[in-house]
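forwarding from the other thread:

> can someone predict this with NAP?

sure thing
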Amino acid sequence: MSRPAVGLVWAQAHDAAGRPVIGAGGVMPWHLPEDLAHFRRVTTGHPVLMGRVTWDSLPPRFRPLPGRRNVVVTRQEDWLPDDAAHPGAPGTGVVVASSVEEGLALASAAAEESGSEQVWVMGGAQVYAATLPLADRCVVTEIDLEVDGDAFAPALAAGPGGDWELGGVGPDAPGAPDGGWQTSAAGVRFRMLTYERRR
Ligand SMILES: NC(=O)c1ccc[n+]([C@@H]2O[C@H](COP(=O)([O-])OP(=O)(O)OC[C@H]3O[C@@H](n4cnc5c(N)ncnc54)[C@H](OP(=O)(O)O)[C@@H]3O)[C@@H](O)[C@H]2O)c1
């Protein structure tokens, strides 16, 4: 069996300089339920890999994220996740890795065990940067909002000759009406894009 595909999934707004903001002060500086539902749809049933800071940013009652093996990377040898209250069903729950490589290997093994062909890297900035060279696809929610931030998405070269091209189906497809932009219940514009690595 070939290795499971590696996908990165994130949501980004932008700062005044146009940089793609994904976080501020350890959290996401917006509330967009439509994106949380999209994230759940995309990742449920597949292992997720995250940095320890992103784990800490999840509300304790939501971690480990259910229905997914959660793999957390940390350099702290004695770090333990506070998951005692949520042991999880087989194939879910949380495991700890001491490197991104080990984390991806654990996530890939969990995917193969559960019959999934995909692992999802769910942040944050450090872990996206470390895994982008290995990624097959990136699923990006663009939020039309200017915010200050201190964590940024990696840059994707999607122009001619770049590593990435827009793919996706349905409302995510290139050429979707209005460029795929939708308006959230809270009035914020957003769209979901899928980039596939050019082969
Ligand atoms: N908008 C989105 O879609 C989205 C998604 C996820 C996260 N975020 C945001 O992103 C921000 C967090 O990003 P971040 O870059 O600060 O942190 P992060 O990538 O979530 O986690 C960084 C931590 O992961 C561990 N780590 C990183 N590289 C490692 C390696 N090579 N080997 C072993 N461990 C490694 C270290 O943990 P130790 O310090 O424990 O050693 C490091 O401090 C937050 O604001 C969060 O809300 C946004």
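The pocket of NAP is lined by residues 10-11, 22-23, 26-28, 50-54, 57, 73-76, 79, 98-100, 122-127, 130, 151 (CB under 6 Å). thats all i got for now
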